[in-house]
Design a protein that fits this description.
The protein is α/β, with parallel strands linked by helices. It has six helices and five strands; from the N terminus they run βαβαβαβαβαα. Bound molecules: adenosine-5'-diphosphate.
Length: 160
């Protein structure tokens, strides 16, 4: 059981895969902060504020969940928030190497911070924000992969 856990990431945009991980984490977390990283190296489709707003819509009415953004080291942010756990999702072996490195580095920086990995439902293991962005960018139907509000935002981004 964790008092306060962080689920950090880019969430550009939030997908049903992220949502699945969040719902699973609520089985053992009292409060979860979904934290949008401001210092991602990629060029995002949605601004940080847009990503935060979409997450707020997706998790509206869920008292255990809050959404925010952060800059700098996750270990520092976790300490400032009083979080004792980091939640991450693992889709495939391809996620493993990067996640393993991040988890051990975060432990080095903050020994009291534990990382747990959750596997999504099998049908979500191939889903990523980048593939959703790509399909939506070419006018494809991503309604099976994202919340209706995210779908609306994607359509608005790709229409001229
Ligand atoms: P990144 O940090 O690679 O930009 P994201 O922001 O997309 O990752 O996602 C944050 C976390 O959610 C990561 O741990 C990632 O592995 C996980 N995640 C993303 N999509 C899925 C999915 N479909 N199923 C399970 N976990 C996922």
């Amino acid at each position: 059981m964790s008092g306060l856990a962080l689920y950090p990431g880019s969430f550009d945009p939030v997908t049903n895969g992220h949502e699945d991980i969040v719902r699973r984490s609520l089985k053992f977390v009292d409060r979860l902060v979904v934290a949008v990283a401001r210092n991602g190296s990629k060029t995002p489709l949605f601004s940080v504020d847009e990503r935060v707003r979409l997450l707020e819509v997706v998790f509206a009415g869920e008292p255990k969940i809050s959404v925010c953004s952060f800059e700098g080291l996750l270990a520092d942010f976790a300490r400032a928030e009083g979080a004792d756990l980091v939640v991450r999702g693992l889709r495939a072996v391809s996620d493993f190497e990067f996640e393993f490195q991040m988890a051990l580095m975060n432990r080095q920086l903050s020994p009291e911070l534990e990382t747990v990995f959750l596997m999504p439902d099998q049908h979500l293991t191939y889903l990523s924000s980048s593939i959703v962005r790509e399909i939506a960018g070419f006018g494809g139907d991503v309604s099976a992969f994202v919340h209706p509000e995210v779908l609306k935002a994607l359509v608005a981004k790709s229409s001229p």
